[in-house]
């Protein structure tokens, strides 16, 4: 084989390998996107929109996963679940007489459950990011309820708004209350 033929063969092999590597990379990126979109649901789209870039958003979501993986998230004991459930019933009943206090207490109760499960209590955005990893379907409820609670503190929420906030808090609360720890963590606590 002369040197020209050898050069052509080498270049062809390099081109084929580069194309194959690009195809594998694109496939891996597609799978990454599918996995994150499936896991985070609407939160995926919210983060992509917020970041303005899919890759940055996916890096953020993977960072959330790594952060939460390092936390010691545990299941609630039966006694804790019952105690929290009873307190929730009290707040729902309180809504009739004092909707503002019921919503404020619902927010506090959600935070107490999160703390009891092992979530760190940073600012709202950090809490929302942390719980989005294991409770992606409920995170939108938390965001809606929190926004209404903020509007209420400014005197801008109606009783109907407060009723909706309580319903959204309840959906998150129930998800947090019934959620189980990862299998490796069962038996701790």
Q: Quick gist of this model?
A:
The chain has 189 residues and is mainly alpha-helical. The protein is 79% helix and 0% strand. The chain contains eight helices and no strands.
Low-confidence stretches: 179-189
Radius of gyration, CA atoms, in whole angstroms: 24 Å
Distance between the termini: 71 Å
Q: How many domains is the backbone divided into?
A: 2
> Main sheet?
none
The number of helical runs is 8
| Strand segment tally | 0
What fraction of residues sit in β-strands? under 5%
- Looking at the structure, what is the overall shape? elongated
Mean pLDDT value: 89
Provide the succession of SSEs. Answer: HHHHHHHH
General description of the model:
The chain has 189 residues and is mainly α. It folds into 2 domains: 3-69; 78-185, no CATH class. The chain has helices at residues 3-40, 42-51, 54-69, 78-94, 99-117, 124-134, 136-153, 159-178. The longest helix has 38 residues, at 3-40. It is elongated, with a radius of gyration of 24 Å. The protein starts with a helix and ends in an 11-residue tail after the last helix. Residues 179-189 have low confidence and may be disordered.
What would the keywords be for this entry?
189 residues; mainly alpha; 2 domains; elongated; disordered C terminus
SSE blueprint:
Layout: H1 3-40, H2 42-51, H3 54-69, H4 78-94, H5 99-117, H6 124-134, H7 136-153, H8 159-178
Helix pairs in contact: 1-2, 2-3, 3-6, 4-5, 4-8, 5-7, 5-8, 6-7, 7-8
């Amino acid at each position: 084989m002369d040197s020209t033929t050898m050069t052509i063969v080498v270049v062809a092999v390099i081109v084929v390998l580069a194309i194959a590597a690009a195809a594998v990379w694109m496939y891996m990126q597609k799978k990454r996107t599918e996995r994150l979109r499936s896991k985070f649901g609407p939160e995926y789209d919210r983060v992509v929109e917020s970041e303005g870039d899919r890759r940055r958003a996916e890096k953020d979501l993977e960072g959330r996963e790594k952060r939460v993986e390092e936390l010691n998230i545990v299941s609630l004991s039966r006694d804790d679940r019952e105690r929290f459930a009873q307190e929730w019933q009290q707040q729902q009943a309180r809504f009739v007489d004092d909707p503002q206090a019921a919503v404020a207490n619902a927010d506090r109760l959600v935070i107490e459950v999160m703390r009891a499960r092992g979530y760190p209590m940073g600012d709202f955005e950090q809490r929302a990011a942390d719980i989005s990893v294991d409770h992606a379907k409920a995170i939108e409820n938390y965001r809606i309820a929190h926004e209404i609670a903020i509007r209420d503190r400014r005197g801008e929420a109606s009783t109907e708004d407060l009723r909706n906030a309580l319903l959204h808090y309840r959906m998150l609360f129930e998800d947090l209350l019934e959620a189980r720890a990862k299998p490796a963590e069962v038996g701790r606590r």
